[in-house]
Amino acid sequence: MSLNKGPVLGKPESIVVILDDDEAVRFSLRAALRATGFTVLAFATAEVMLQQTDLALPTAFVLDFELPGIDGIMAAQHIRACSPDAFIVLLTGHEIASAPASVDLVLRKPFDPARLVGLLRVRRGL
Amino acid sequence: MLMHLNAETVVRDLADKLPGALFQYIVRPDGTDGVGFVSGGCVELWELDAESVVTDASLLWAQVHPDDRNEMMASVARSRAELSDWYHEWRIIPPSGKLKWVRGIGRPHAMPDGSVVWTTYNSDITEEVAAKLAAAKLEHELDRLSQADQVTQALASVIHETAQPLAAVANYLFAIERAVEALPGVDGPDGPLSLLERAAEQARRVGRIMHGLRDLFSRTPVLQPEPIAELLGEAALMFRAATPGGAPIELDLPDIGLVEVDRLMMQQALLNLLRNASEAVAGLAEGRITLGLMPQPQGARIRVIDNGHGIAEEVRGRIFQPFVSGKPGGLGMGLSICRTIIAAHGGELRCEENAGGGACFVIDLYTQVT
């Protein structure tokens, strides 16, 4: 399989993609998810993520809402088109009126990483 | 043949038509004063007939509001000394007891015997002053609102900017905790694992505060039927857990069924009111807080009562405005948040005097009870 168009990475059911342009959030979330056994791919822009990832393979995507260029909601629509079953979480710093259809869960920053991990684990078990 | 009226008759006739009082006022060289001619308007303005005024000018001085008397006397003395036109505004309390604002204008004339005589006109400007005060008050309110709006916007952007690093801190702590829990000898109440968990709890706490603030500015309530008695009991428990050791909270929460509220927002409002009540009774030996619920014909009434120091009369009317606080050092945000929340529910929050001293905050909800 070729997820990253590079080396084979872990078990496909435990792959989580992080998309956040804030380096601290991206780096720390990657550390938190890796610490609980997930294989993590992290990107700063949706453009690079779409270019380098086979969207059908990861089980979950954690997307920042506000991004330069393609934003989190547009990215979620791309992902949903390729992967109807992926668990898509949208992170927001601002208030949004309601969760867009292509997103499973909206988490407001700051969020509790334990809660996110719990949800991802439940999802992985499905 | 055309008959002519004499000038004095013309002046008297015209003067009697004026809404205020036209009169002559004299100050003699020895400082004694008196009133010469006075127009009919004196009855409406001073509630005195012309004869009384002419007989005893001190009746007019007696009506001058005590706080305005010195300035009033000074203005007349200045006009007398400089023979300058007189202009003054002051308050009077006429026999009816109804306070009036009066404006006086006059021109002094020096008499050969050393007296000074003014032709002067006094008019009732109570309504004009009231309108000015109302306008000034309105302007003040608008200022305050715009100030509140600016603070709101600044706060929203601070929250947004702080959310990212705080999220990162929480994530790092979580990652470190996972790494540390695999090591030997990290357990125990003061062990690294416990310390990390405490740090993580503080990060979550800041997060809750930020979400609470954000809710305040942007959220519209999502109304769901909730067991209101249970919700109130929970709020009291949460408050006690968060601030242990305070005054006891007496619960009077009969089960009145389901009421449509936004659970989180309602709890936020209740926590604010409980915090205020708790601060009001802090340090009192017999401090007591009551959280009560009662059904209403259309909805429910919630009351948060304390037997603390109460709310000062002069603050009570404004206590729900942003940046008005009844507490020294208070930000003045809490009650404004509460009222915003209750208003968003279509309800009403008000402050009443508690019969036994202290404050009583009443929430009336007019939502469906099932």
Question: Mind explaining what this structure looks like?
Answer:
The complex is a heterodimer of chains A (126) and B (370). The longest helix of chain A is centred in the first third of the chain and has 13 residues, at 23-35. Chain A has four helices and five strands. Chain A is of the alpha/beta class and 126 residues long. Chain A has helices at 23-35, 46-52, 72-82, 113-125; strands spanning 15-19, 39-43, 60-64, 87-92, 105-108. In chain A, α3 (72-82) links the parallel β3 (60-64) and β4. Chain A is 35% helix and 20% strand. Chain A has a five-stranded parallel β-sheet with strand order 2-1-3-4-5, sandwiched between helices. Chain A has one domain: Rossmann fold (3-Layer(aba) Sandwich). Chain B is an alpha+beta fold and 370 residues long. Chain B folds into three domains: 7-124, Beta-Lactamase (2-Layer Sandwich), CATH 3.30.450; 130-218, Orthogonal Bundle (Helix Hairpins); 224-365, Histidine kinase-like ATPase, C-terminal domain (Heat Shock Protein 90, 2-Layer Sandwich), CATH 3.30.565. Chain B is built from eleven helices and twelve strands. In chain B, a hairpin with a 5-residue loop joins β11 and β12 (359-365). Chain B is elongated and about 120 Å long. Chain B starts with 6 loop residues before the first helix and ends in a 5-residue tail after the last strand. The model of chain B has no long low-confidence stretch (mean pLDDT 86).
